[in-house]
C-alpha cells in the first residue's frame, strides 16, 4: 500500500555542552549510524489521553490521530480496537510524525512529504515501477508515482481510502487530519478487530507488505500503548518512595507545570535558560528547567550536588545498566536515555524515576515538567542510584 519512508539522520546536531539533552561531538558522530532521529517537538498534554503519553509526538499530529479514532465509527462502523497508538505507530515509521514539517491549525503540512519516485531504481528500497495515477496532483510528478503525506499513501490508494478528517470539504493526503482518518479507514478494512494481534498484523501487512515493517510498527504501537496506560498520577505519585528518595521526588513534583527551558534550572529552582537547543529553540526568554536542570534542583534538596549535564550525571552514584531492565530501578533513581546505552558520554536525557514505569520529566522545548512513562521516549540507557 505504501512505500516505507525511512528518514535517516540528515541533520547535523547542534551540540551545546553546558546543558543536557545533547551528546558530546565525538559520541554523537560515532553514534549516527545507530541513531533514530529524535526531533524536539512540542507535545500538548491537554490534547487528551492523559499526561505525557507521547513524548516524541507533536501536539498537532497527536490531535489528528485522536480525531481519526473519534470519527472511525462513522466510516467503518464494524471496526473494533482502533486506538491512537495504532495510528501513531504507523506514522512514526512512515514520517516520524511529519518530522521537520510545519503543521497548520487546520492540519495542512508544509512542505509536503514525498517519498522517492517509484521507478524501480532501488532508491528508498523500491524495485517496482509504478505508473502515474494522479497526474502529479498529490506527488508533484506525472512521470510516475511517489508515496505522499505523513502516512505515505500511494495516490491510487488515496483515491479509495482518502477521507475528509477536518471537515473542510477536501480529501488531502498532505493534511494531518485527512491522512490520519484515511489511514484509519484503510487499517480497519471491512471491519477488523484490531485488538486481535493477528488481525492487527494483517492490517499492517496490507499497509506495507513487509513482515519486518509490521514488527517495527508493532513495537511502536506497544510503546505508545504502554505510555498511555501508565500516564497520570497525582501529588502522591512517588509510589513507594521513602526518606530522601521521597524528598527528591516531592521536590521535582512541586515543579509540575513549569515550562521547559533549554539550559534552565539551578539548585535553587527555575531560571532563564540559554540559546539554543539542537532544534534551534532558545531558553533565554523562558524561566524553567531542562532535563538536567530539574534533576540538579531536586537532588539539591537532599544535599546532593549534581554536575550540569545529563552525560556527566550518568557518572554519579551506582550505575544501573540498561541490560538490567527497568525492574532494577527504584523510586528516586536517575533514568537516562542515550545513543549508546553503555557509553555515559552519549547520554542525552535524564529524568527521575517515580515507580510503576513512570518518571518526572522535563522532556523538550514546548512542554512542561510532567509525568511520563519511561517507554514514552526511545534510547533507554539505564539509571543511576544516588540515594
Short recap of the structure:
With 387 residues, the chain is of the alpha+beta class. The protein has helices at residues 25-31, 59-75, 84-95, 155-161, 176-188, 197-207, 211-230, 243-253, 291-300, 310-313, and strands at 102-103, 109-110, 271-272, 287-288, 318-320, 334-338, 347-355, 358-361, 370-373, 380-385. The chain folds into 2 domains: 54-113 and 148-230, Lysozyme (Orthogonal Bundle); 243-385, endopeptidase fold (from Nostoc punctiforme) (Alpha-Beta Complex), CATH 3.90.1720.
Description:
The protein is of the alpha+beta class. It folds into two domains: 54-113 and 148-230, Lysozyme, CATH 1.10.530.10; 243-385, Alpha-Beta Complex (endopeptidase fold (from Nostoc punctiforme)). It is 29% helix and 10% strand. The chain has ten helices and ten strands. Strands 5-10-6-7-8-9 form a six-stranded antiparallel sheet. Strand 1 (102-103) and strand 2 form a beta hairpin. Helix 2 (59-75) packs across helix 3 and helix 2 (59-75) crosses helix 5 (176-188). The longest helix is centred in the middle third of the chain and has 20 residues, at 211-230. Residues 2-19, 22-53 and 232-238 have low confidence and may be disordered.
Structural class, from helix and strand content?
A: alpha+beta
Continuous helix count: 10
Q: Determine the CATH topology of the largest domain.
A: Lysozyme
Mean pLDDT: 83
Amino acid at each position: 500500500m505504501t512505500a516505507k519512508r525511512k528518514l535517516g539522520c540528515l541533520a547535523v546536531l547542534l551540540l551545546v555542552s553546558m546543558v543536557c539533552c545533547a551528546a558530546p561531538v565525538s559520541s554523537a558522530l560515532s553514534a549516527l549510524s545507530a541513531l533514530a532521529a529524535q526531533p524536539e517537538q512540542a507535545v500538548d498534554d491537554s490534547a487528551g489521553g492523559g499526561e505525557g503519553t507521547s513524548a516524541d509526538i507533536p501536539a498537532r499530529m497527536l490531535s489528528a490521530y485522536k480525531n481519526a479514532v473519534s470519527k472511525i465509527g462513522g466510516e467503518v462502523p464494524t471496526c473494533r480496537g482502533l486506538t491512537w497508538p495504532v495510528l501513531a505507530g504507523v506514522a512514526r515509521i512512515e514520517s516520524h510524525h511529519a518530522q521537520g514539517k510545519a503543521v497548520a491549525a487546520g492540519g495542512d503540512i508544509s512542505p509536503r512529504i514525498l517519498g522517492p519516485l517509484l521507478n524501480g531504481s532501488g532508491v528508498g528500497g523500491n524495485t517496482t515501477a509504478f505508473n502515474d495515477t494522479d497526474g502529479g496532483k498529490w506527488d508533484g510528478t506525472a512521470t510516475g508515482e511517489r508515496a505522499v503525506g505523513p502516512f505515505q499513501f500511494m495516490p491510487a490508494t488515496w483515491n479509495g481510502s482518502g477521507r475528509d478528517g477536518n471537515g473542510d470539504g477536501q480529501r488531502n493526503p498532505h493534511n494531518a487530519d485527512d491522512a490520519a482518518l484515511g489511514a484509519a479507514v484503510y487499517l480497519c478494512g471491512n471491519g477488523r478487530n484490531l485488538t486481535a494481534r493477528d488481525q492487527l498484523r494483517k492490517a499492517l501487512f496490507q499497509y506495507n507488505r513487509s513482515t519486518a515493517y509490521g514488527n517495527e510498527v508493532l513495537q511502536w504501537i506497544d510503546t505508545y500503548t504502554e505510555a498511555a496506560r501508565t500516564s497520570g498520577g497525582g501529588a502522591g505519585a512517588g509510589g513507594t518512595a521513602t526518606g530522601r528518595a521521597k524528598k527528591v521526588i516531592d521536590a521535582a513534583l512541586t515543579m509540575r507545570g513549569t515550562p521547559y527551558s533549554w539550559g534552565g534550572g539551578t539548585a535553587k529552582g527555575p531560571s532563564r535558560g540559554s540559546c539554543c537547543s539542537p532544534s534551534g529553540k532558545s531558553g533565554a526568554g523562558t524561566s524553567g528547567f531542562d532535563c538536567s536542570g530539574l534533576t540538579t534542583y531536586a537532588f539539591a534538596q537532599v544535599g546532593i550536588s549534581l554536575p550540569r549535564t545529563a552525560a556527566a550525571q550518568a557518572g554519579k552514584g551506582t550505575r544501573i545498566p540498561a541490560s538490567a531492565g527497568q525492574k532494577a530501578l527504584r523510586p528516586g533513581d536517575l533514568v537516562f536515555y542515550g545513543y549508546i546505552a553503555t557509553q555515559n558520554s552519549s547520554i542525552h536525557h535524564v529524568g527521575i524515576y517515580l515507580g510503576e514505569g513512570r518518571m518526572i520529566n522535563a522532556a523538550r522545548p514546548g512542554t512542561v515538567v510532567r509525568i511520563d512513562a519511561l517507554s514514552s521516549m526511545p534510547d533507554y540507557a539505564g539509571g543511576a542510584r544516588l540515594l
